[in-house]
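Collaborator request, handled under Task 6.
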Amino acid sequence: MATVTIKHVTKAFGDNVVLKEFNETFQEGEFITLLGPSGCGKTTMLRIIAGFEKPTTGELYIDNQLVSGGKTFIPPEKRSVGMVFQSYAVWPHMNVFDNVAYPLTIKKVPKAEIKKSVAHVLEIVHLSQYAERFPNQLSGGQQQRVALARALVAAPKLLLLDEPLSNLDAKLRESMRFEIKEIQRQLGITVVYVTHDQTEAMAMSDRIFLINRGVVQQCGSPEEIYNHPANQFVADFLGKVDFFKGESANGRIVFPKMDGQSFAYNGPRTGKVEVAVRPENLYFAEDGILEGTLEAQYYLGDVDDCRVRVGETLVRVIANGYEYKKLTNGQKVRLGVRDFMVFEDDGSLEQMLQIQT
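Structure tokens returned to the collaborator:
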């Protein structure tokens, strides 16, 4: 296990600054996810940790050893780091055993020790029975597990994963999330994981660092970031959410584009506000505080994904799947609100949603 200490790290390519003042310590045994849209700087941070990029300014320590910063630079092969890439990058001419053994083979580790280490790691990733197969005889998920085993076989202090599941189908991605998390728990290894997929981040992480335009917008546990976002960008990126413009005064928020309907609010913000409501926090109720017309339903089995017109505003409601049989498009409905978030309407949402490509 290892700690990673990042001190005032910035990275620029010419005039393009892709990371700005990254400061944090990743603790031993933590599962850290760097989350954000394409081009936000998350993979650049991972490559700096791995040693594939040098920071423009700042310092990086693995445990208490300075590995990047100033005149010091320790190359990737001397950092005791394992890395899994988006592409499987397995050797097509080698069987599973030889693919996994490769890092030990090039270090000239004795054959008996290689055999023992490879057998151990193949058991961890549930590939023992496939040791003699070649990559073209494996599924995508099995090939990804080969890449994971190869990264683990040398017992690295730190495991880095760069969008390793993006090439897999939806069901396989879901199962691999839990497999990777279980392996991390079993080994107690520190993991830094890069993804743009918020579901992956929520399912696997101890802490999430949500990055936009090279700046960490918020870090915290999945529950903390989901339920208490620092700003509108965080609320929008992590999970489903609708934003409604309102006016806060005298203990209520009035929504001009919802026919002036309103609900109670005793928080500190007054004047123009952005109200963020997650669709699972709205529900159909006879005594609901908002009134509208059901325009559409999308039956997804476990849930009924609905759209309700409230004045000029289309509101998304995720209801229980059984509601699909009870509701009819065009009928008048009332909505209750379990929870909502209130932000100052300062125009920052529109600015921050201009995601880099």
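The cover message to the collaborator said: "The chain is about 25% helix and 35% strand. The two ends are 35 Å apart (CA to CA). Please let us know whether this matches your experimental observations."
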